[in-house]
Specification:
Layout (H helix, E strand, L loop, with lengths): L2 H19 L5 H4 L8 H19 L3 H8 L9 H14 L1 H8 L10 H21 L2 H6 L1 E4 L3 E4 H22 L7
Antiparallel strand pairs: 1-2
Length: 180
């Protein structure tokens, strides 16, 4: 997938999430279904994962090459990244639960600040996606905690899908609720 198309996909996925969030009542921010994350925890998780990705993409290319090596295969297409992520989630359910069980739950008073952070981080990712050259997108690898080493292009595509994944979960958990 072309990097400009990926940048547009990121915008599309985040706009869908923000549109949905703007229609939700305040109580959904702090209270979720029993045993499930609240809306605020989903947003915090997305902010944290985007911030980590943006931070690593700020490192000098030579450092990434030295630390993680280079890809020994071509980048996967978007659908293949999505399929692999879904398989890994299913395969390692208990690991993902343990990884995320101590995620704190931001309060309603933190909503605007957290949504602003999410907006900033997703815009940074779009900017970086447009600026990284194609050779680096397809040769540099970065480890993902669940999926292992991925090319930068794959990781950015995964970030777009990750947003869709959480938006879909939120829509299912809170279907039928009123506006703010």
């Amino acid at each position: 997938m072309d990097k400009l198309v990926i940048a547009d996909l990121i915008e599309e996925k985040y706009q869908e999430l923000f549109d949905w969030l703007n229609q939700q009542p305040g109580e959904n921010w702090e209270q979720g279904p029993e045993g499930k994350w609240t809306t605020s925890q989903h947003i915090l998780h997305l902010v944290n994962s985007l911030q980590l990705l943006n931070n690593v993409l700020s490192y000098p290319r030579f450092f990434l090459k030295y630390k993680f090596g280079l890809s020994n295969r071509p980048s996967r297409e978007y659908d293949a990244v999505v399929k692999r992520y879904q398989e890994k989630l299913e395969e390692h359910k208990d690991r993902t639960i343990a990884f995320n069980e101590n995620l704190k739950s931001p309060l309603l008073k933190d909503r605007i600040r957290l949504l602003n952070r999410l907006q900033i981080q997703h815009k940074k990712l779009q900017y970086k996606t447009r600026k990284i050259n194609d050779v680096n997108l397809d040769t540099l690898v970065i480890p993902h905690p669940l999926m292992g080493k991925m090319t930068v292009r794959e990781l950015i595509m995964w970030a777009a899908y990750h947003t869709e994944h959480h938006t879909t979960i939120l829509k299912k958990l809170y279907s039928g609720t009123q506006k703010w």
